[in-house]
């Protein structure tokens, strides 16, 4: 392949290697969630909501940082906007498919993740911060945009403090495969990095081998490869029928992608509201609001078809027409 990479390509085998390494990373992080919960007497769902998304989103933070240092502000902002969009359109279908598959194998009691209405509150809360961004055009309201970014950062830290409040944990210490939590965290990050790199390069080479052009790969297949590493911890919890922790990870991702990351970009004055970015945010908001309504009636994931339709709509608009009417 002509494209350079930080690690050598292993061809189409990279797909299998990437899936294995990503799954390994998720299992390592899952163990860390329970260890930290026991060690510091914090609720497992709270640790899952804060710790897991920060680790799994580290590749996106790296892309943002490198693009920012290189003066590529549009790429930096694009990597931020992509997160709430992907979380609302592609991750929900991945959660539903995981739940259905493991239910068919007898590993779960419910077909869909079983949640309580209270889950709708944080999902709604972390959808609302995206709305003002659509009106804070940097060429007109740059200073207000930066102040709003600082506010979003403060909101996320308050949320993290609340989620990581003390709670009595009666279970014994969770075992770590690598015994040392710092070493296990480093191993999880390394496995995620190599897994994501090999998965993306492997999908590209596999697609080229069967005749798919690069455009089709970039807008259809590669995003699937990036979703798996982001959501692997939540998917593992869901697959094991531990919906509280699994949904907490999904909500934690939502919080991180709707407050911390856009807040960081806006506080630094690195954001734009060109049509592609605005449409991605609008679709994320619409799907999230519908998901809140579904959860209020006791179901999580019913918006998966709507989210997937939104993703395909976005792809259709910007690959065939260059713009979306929404």
Give the topology.
Blueprint lengths: L12 H28 L3 H13 L1 H12 L3 H17 L1 H14 L15 H6 L4 H4 L4 H26 L17 H29 L4 H26 L3 H25 L7 H22 L7 H18 L5
Helix pairs in contact: 1-2, 1-9, 1-10, 2-10, 2-11, 3-4, 4-11, 4-12, 4-13, 5-10, 5-13, 8-11, 9-10, 10-11, 12-13
Describe the structure.
By secondary structure, the chain is mainly α. Helix content is 74%, strand content 0%. The longest helix is centred in the middle third of the chain and has 29 residues. The model has no long low-confidence stretch (mean pLDDT 84).
Number of contiguous helices: 13
State the major sheet: none
For the CA atoms, what is the radius of gyration? 19 Å
Low-confidence stretches: none
| Basic shape | globular
State the total count of DSSP E strands: 0
Strand proportion, as a percent range, falls in under 5%
Distance between the termini: 37 Å
Q: Pairing-aware structural class of the strands and helices?
A: mainly alpha
Instruction: Report helical residue fraction.
Output: over 70%
The SSE order reads HHHHHHHHHHHHH
């Amino acid at each position: 392949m002509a494209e350079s990479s930080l690690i050598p390509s292993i061809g189409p085998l990279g797909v299998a290697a990437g899936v294995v390494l990503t799954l390994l990373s998720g299992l390592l992080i899952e163990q860390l969630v329970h260890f930290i919960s026991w060690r510091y007497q914090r609720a497992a769902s709270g640790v899952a909501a804060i710790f897991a998304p920060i680790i799994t989103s580290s590749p996106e933070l790296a892309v943002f940082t490198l693009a920012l240092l290189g003066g590529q502000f549009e790429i930096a902002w694009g990597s931020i906007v992509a997160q709430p969009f992907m979380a609302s359109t592609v991750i929900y279908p991945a959660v539903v498919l995981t739940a259905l598959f493991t239910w068919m194998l007898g590993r779960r009691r419910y077909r869909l993740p079983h949640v309580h209405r209270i889950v709708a509150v944080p999902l709604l809360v972390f959808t609302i911060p995206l709305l003002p961004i659509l009106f804070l055009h940097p060429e007109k309201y740059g200073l207000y945009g930066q102040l709003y970014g600082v506010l979003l950062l403060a909101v996320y830290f308050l949320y993290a403090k609340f989620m990581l409040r003390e709670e009595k944990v009666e279970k014994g210490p969770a075992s770590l495969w690598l015994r040392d939590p710092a070493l296990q965290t480093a191993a999880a990050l390394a496995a995620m990095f190599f897994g994501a790199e090999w998965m993306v390069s492997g999908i590209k080479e596999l697609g080229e081998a069967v005749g798919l052009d690069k455009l089709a790969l970039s807008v259809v297949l590669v995003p699937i490869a990036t979703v798996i590493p982001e959501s692997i911890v939540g998917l593992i919890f869901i697959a094991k029928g531990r919906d509280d922790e699994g949904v907490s990870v999904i909500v934690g991702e939502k919080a991180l992608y709707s407050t911390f990351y856009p807040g960081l970009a806006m506080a630094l004055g690195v954001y734009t509201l060109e049509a592609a970015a605005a449409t991605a945010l609008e679709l994320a908001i619409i799907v999230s609001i519908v998901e809140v309504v579904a959860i209020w009636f006791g179901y999580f994931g019913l918006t998966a078809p709507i989210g997937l339709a939104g993703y395909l709509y976005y792809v259709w608009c910007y690959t065939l027409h260059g713009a979306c009417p929404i």
